[in-house]
Amino acid sequence: MAEDLLTQEIDSDADNYNSYANRSFVMARKPDWGSALHDALKSVNIQPSLTGYLSKGIALCGQMNFQDATKAFDLAFMFAEGGSKTVHLLLLIKAIALFNANQHDEAMLRVQELATACPNADIVACRAVEVSLPACPTRN
Asked: Whole-prediction pTM value?
């Protein structure tokens, strides 16, 4: 349903970069990594944005392309507004994407470093992610 609605939005406005990024997230949940990356790249090519680079990073993680995924997540920071809470959220998203791509040690290390290194970090959110990551199902 969400995919169909986003496709309708894209069909009515081919320059709607947010709809491409959002459809990329939907495709990543399937997981259809090729389509997710296609939509993410389309989004970023139309208009570089936070959601575009997040969707690109997630799709690249799904394709096990961690070096390019990290670059995409890093570029997302350029569009972060809202201060340190947004940055912390982005770091947690990056850790979750790495975990879901079977990079468990790297993901856990990032969450632990964020929780200890940032005195103003949302410790509850960091701990919630840290505790929930081992329970997440891994991809084969």
From this structure: 0.75
